[in-house]
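Q: Hi! First time doing this. I have a protein sequence and I read that you can turn it into a structure. Is that right? Here it is:
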Amino acid sequence: IALYEESLAIEEKIGNAQGKAATLHQLAILKANQGDVAGAIALYEESLAITEKIGDVQTKAATLHQLAILKANQGDVDGAIELFQESLTIEEKIGYAEGKAATLWWLGQLFAEQKQSPTTGLTYLRQALTIYQQIKSPSQDSLEQTIRRIENNLS
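A: Yes, that's right. Below is the predicted 3D structure, encoded as structure tokens:
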């Protein structure tokens, strides 16, 4: 964390907004991993404000995705879905296939398991699987297991 904070000070000093946003994003990940969810959210929101100001859509999509995960883990499913859908829109617009697939996977699981809408969930999950197959992602097998588990719960 100390090195990220040092990096943050340098980014601020030289006026590198994109670097500052990326560093805040990385610091937020560390804070979240240490259990400081409130601190992580504050850093993500600061990063998000910068990315919106400078038009850094890829970092914005990643930050929205991470914020959505935190909201989902805190039980704010509707808030998480809203952020994931915003992230998904950006990922589709910029052609970021791997990010899109990960976001679709999260949306699928939230709809299937938290919103009691397995049909909607499976639609998202199958879209994610198609992308993972196209890009030959190692996550494909895990996603296939998730889909099978949800399908089995339907029968």
